[in-house]
Amino acid sequence: MAFDIEMIKKVYAEMPAKVEQTRKQLGKPLTLTEKILYAHLADNLPTSAYERGNSYVNFNPDRVAMQDATAQMALLQFMQAGKSKAAVPSTVHADHLIQAKVGASTDLKTAEVSNKEVYDFLSSVSNRYGIGFWKPGAGIIHQVVLENYAFPGGMMIGTDSHTVNAGGLGMIAIGVGGADAVDVMAGMPWELKFPKLIGVKLTGKLNGWTAPKDIILKVAGILTVKGGTGCVVEYFGEGAKSLSCTGKGTICNMGAEIGATTSTFGYDESMERYLRATDRADVADAANSVKEHLTADPEVYANPEKYFDELIEINLDELEPHLNGPFTPDRATPISKMKEEAEKNGWPLKIEVGLIGSCTNSSYEDISRSASIAEQAAEKNLKAKGEFKITPGSEQVRYTIERDGLIDVFNKMGGEVFANACGPCIGMWARTGAEKQEKNTIVHSFNRNFAKRADGNPNTYAFVGSPELVTAMAIAGDLGFNPITDTLVNENGETVKLDEPTGYELPPQGFGVEDAGYQAPAEDGSDVEVVVNPESDRLQLLTPFAPWDGKNISNAKLLIKAKGKCTTDHISMAGPWLKFRGHLDNISNNMLIGGVNFFNDETNKVKSQLTGEYGEVPATQRGYKEAGIPTVVVGDHNYGEGSSREHAAMEPRHLGVRAVIVKSFARIHETNLKKQGMLGLTFANEADYDLVQEDDTFNFLDLDQFAPGKTLSVELVHADGSKDVITTNHTYNQQQIEWFKAGSALNLIKKQNA
Fold first, then answer.
1. Which pLDDT value is given to residue 644?
2. What does the DSSP 8-state code read for residue 237?
3. Hey, which residues are catalytic here?
4. Which of 481, 575, 643, 694 could form a disulfide with 427 if both were Cys (CB 3.0 to 4.6 A apart)?
């Protein structure tokens, strides 16, 4: 039986009337996205449709999920909210803190010792507040959610940008910062700007070497890393119905890489099969009773151009396998063009490592199709030229593929199985030799490939592809290899060709598992003690941020003018820094160390206006904080792209940065800044970015008149005494301005609950 089945049945019982009322009120057929969003409104149905991309709307999500790296800060904040129990079903998943080094068993044992303090905290705080806890080794949050919690037509938020993975089961699932999770767990509405809608019509059917991954790699190439910002992507068409449920999950997962709020698919037979295979026949039966409400109205898909703000069509019959990269997930190259592109751009052709799995591609289907290629390698006397690593997404998947002999198949080609955790995908990979920073190429089936992300080496060229393509590329050891047309020479000197991959949508013998790794919370956790050692370097109780004094910010110094791509990885790196995710002061020592300084093209080297000397960004900022001087960060386009990590907003806030002024923001990061009482502003005239000089002082001229829709004027005072006044825009509504005034959204919640 499914978790929280009564909650799911309640959602379905109320859905038909809500959908019918919405359709009547709006006077038009509805997309799936609209049905789910309007069915989860916290307020009464509006008299007219919300304005897409403009209206702020309050929702009541059905559930919350948190991974261990972000859960620490989320739950430290929740402890201040004055609640005795989480108001909605919530879970914590211990998946980010396990470093991939030796192999699954050893790495897991090492993590359990080195992270004991954090795991004990997460276990006890979950027990205390009625939250389910998935222990280390249970699996990656998004795979575990898909297997256990996701349900068609539901709405959830999660403190990880790849929460969107649950769209593969027809949910509206959205990545958020921890402060948003606190709102929902505290029983308050959750606010989101009503999204625009992008429709992706899939015709034809995948064949040969193409995989669901290639659909999203193609879409990323079309929309780029910011083309989906503020939008929900809804996939439909015969091609969509032909995909497996986990294949749909892969596509939705990487929707985070185009900046989309989320992505989703209408309920269909593949979702029903997956629900039944994962022991949730009760959910499938309940969904079947309202299935016409779990997809768009027929008129929408018949004339999609009338109902979506943007429409993309992809013919799966003609789609080619892709490799995206390096250094950005939207640089899309069909495999037939990769050799030419690599040679033209000087990308290293020799593939050092192939990695499959991760939250994006660790389903039974992915692993079985990859294993079919590995099996051929053994049969055709081919030895993998590159190293090969496998990361199962959950203990259920790992147990099942071991039972079915697939791990043995990978072992024959020299494969190594890592723990059921994020590992190399988020930089938790102790890769031998990475410290030499040599130029090299890796291929993987993960979702992100920013510089330094996988192994900390800025010279690792990472390319994203499907697991089956990655497996073939690792065998060939050549970035220019095209398995559709090219041959290989085996150990006997014979020329051989790899056959197309084959696999199973679901395990023929069903899923199996001995211990899934779940800890249910106490019925009454009021007596559970949550201990945080004041001497700990891993955990630190939070001190509320100071409220705004109501005055204009003046004499603020420029901390850094970031040049080009500045993702959350640049603002608050993961990898070895993950261990400090529960200690705000310690993790603040990584603040913006990856951002490129516009004035010297270097990272972690900025000028202090106090000393005139260059130093590390966090140390320079601590100097300003000690002197009581406010600072400003200036950035480029899509600032804060990538992860949902709110540490990228909390660290500057903690160290005394008052405002971030950029050309444009990624959605989650902008919200995180607002939640933490920061000013997140954009240049009204993008060219004003060029006016900012290294020794500038910022004076806010009309912040004391901060109001929705009103621009803010900022005076730049340059070192030579000359001045420029620039206009900045913001997207704060009245409620968000109240967060700013209170010092943070949490301060406001605490005040309201007092």
1. 77
2. S
3. 95-96, 160, 448, 643, 645
4. 575
